[in-house]
Amino acid sequence: MPRSATSRLAAQPTTLKSQARQLLEPAEDDIVVVRQLDCAEPGCPPVETFVAVLPPSGASRRWTLHHPVDEITPTCSRRPCPARQAPGTGMS
Questions:
Q1: What average pLDDT does the segment 13-41 reach?
Q2: Domain range for 52
Q3: What is the average per-residue pLDDT within 46-55?
C-alpha cells in the first residue's frame, strides 16, 4: 500500500538527515539537525531548510538551504539547488 502524503512529508527530514550524515561524516556522537522553517526576513524565500551538525563540545557547523526540504536532492546537498520559479511567472 502506498504511503500517505503526510507520512512521505514526515520522512523527508529523516532522509535529508541521513544524506547529511553520509556527506558530512560527523562524529558518531554529533547530533545532526534538519528543520524546515518559515522565513519572514525581507528578501528571504518563504521557506528554507536549516541543517546543523552539533558536536557535544566544540564549534557547530550550520547551513541554510533556500528550498523546502521536499525540493532538496542529494545533488543539492553537494552544490546549489536550481533556482526556484515563482508560481505563474516563469521566473525565479
A1: 88
A2: 27-83
A3: 91
Q: Going along 24-60, which residue ranges are E strands?
A: 31-38, 47-54
Tell me the C-alpha distance between 85 and 48, whole Å: 15
For the chain, the domain total comes to: 1
Instruction: Provide the residue type at 72 as one letter.
Output: I
Q: What is the CA radius of gyration of the chain?
A: 15
What whole-number distance in Å separates Cα of residue 73 and Cα of residue 70?
Answer: 8
What is the grid cell recorded at 75?
545533488
Q: Hey, which residues does 85 pair with through a beta bridge? A: none
In the chain, what's the furthest Cα-to-Cα distance?
47
At 53, list the grid cell: 551538525
Question: Is residue 9 one of the residues assigned to a domain?
Answer: no
